[in-house]
Amino acid sequence: MYGSVTQKILLFSALSSALAWWRPAPGTTREIVLRKTLDDIGTLPVKNQGYRSICCFSAGPCEDWRADADSFPAEAIGNPLDDWEGEAWLDTRNEDARDIMRARIDAAAEKGCDAIDSDNLDVYEHDAGGFDLTIDDAVDYVQFLSEYAHSKDLSFGLKNGGLMVEQVLDLVGFEVNEQCQDFNCPDCDEPHSECRSE
User: Fold this and answer.
1) What residue numbers bound the domain in which 156 lies?
2) Tell me: the pLDDT tens digits for 31-69?
3) Is the overall model pTM greater than 0.85, yes or no?
4) Which terminal residue of the chain has fewer beta carbons within 10 Å of its beta carbon, N or C?
């Protein structure tokens, strides 16, 4: 099943042009494929027409329906996410959990993705997931994820992590803020002097 989802995307122009990983241009729009397994992104017709692919995964919670769910150690699994059955926050400092995220990024690179759209990195806004996690822990986790993604020539995007945007500007190629679109927030772009929204 294919679906179009309109989201507010903030793209940062403050990044150095010397970086090898792809950065969407300000104003870039995207089409999202929902509920369809894509084993080889390189075979999609749009990929052959010069379009880029952004692959999304939740990097903050453990989701019990994922193939790698049993790989997370019990000590890395925290409080459940409100309103999201089967999802629980991760201790993003846990090395085993980070190894699983490395494997997810490896899989994205092998499938032909150009970028990672990581979701649910804002555990610090949700009672710290039961782990006493702070915004500094989240910034450290974004640094870990983005550096690993960049080592695979993938761009790294931040989704719904608005409070830490200024701290990670040089680490991410784009930000997706679904709440800005959902609630039509007039000040969503306020902290971002070097970005544009679609």
Assistant:
1) 2-197
2) 666 556 665 555 566 666 777 788 888 899 999 999 999
3) no
4) N
